[in-house]
């Protein structure tokens, strides 16, 4: 995990259901003294749950940054648990340019925690998302 972090690469920990992957990620972050933002994904998680949420305050709509945006801007580690529950989503180049995205911090990393699909229930990772990671199998004997 440290090698991936030093190389500026994201991490995907793959293993059986249970707390082992999360525990390993948290220990790594504690040892490297890194701040984190945590998101537990479900089938009901939407894009706005990851990016920005609109709230009405004193009759005015205000947008609040969510975990993924805060991690990207402030150089924290984004821990995504249950990545196999994310739905596939592809956007065109025109859509991405129209969104005028903000550059992320050099220290921003993603640690994704998932289970093998189709052995367990879930969705295979979207090819653009899958290409971001090299998976590491976290088995009981690996810990």
UniProtKB/TrEMBL annotation:
Pfam families: AAA_5. Residues 10-133 form the ATPase dynein-related AAA domain. It comes from the Eukaryota. This is ATPase dynein-related AAA domain-containing protein. Gene3D superfamilies: P-loop containing nucleotide triphosphate hydrolases. Signal peptide: none annotated.
């Amino acid at each position: 995990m440290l090698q991936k972090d030093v190389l500026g690469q994201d991490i995907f920990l793959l293993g059986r259901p249970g707390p082992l992957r999360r525990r390993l990620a948290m220990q790594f972050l504690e040892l490297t003294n890194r701040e984190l933002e945590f998101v537990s994904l479900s089938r009901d998680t939407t894009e706005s749950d990851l990016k920005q949420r609109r709230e009405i305050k004193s009759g005015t709509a205000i947008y609040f940054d969510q975990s993924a945006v805060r991690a990207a801007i402030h150089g924290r580690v984004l821990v995504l648990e249950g990545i196999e529950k994310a739905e596939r989503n592809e956007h065109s180049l025109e859509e991405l340019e129209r969104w005028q995205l903000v550059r992320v911090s050099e220290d921003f990393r993603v640690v994704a925690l998932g289970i093998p699909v189709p052995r367990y229930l879930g969705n295979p990772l979207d090819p653009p998302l899958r290409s971001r990671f090299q998976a590491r199998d976290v088995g009981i004997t690996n810990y």
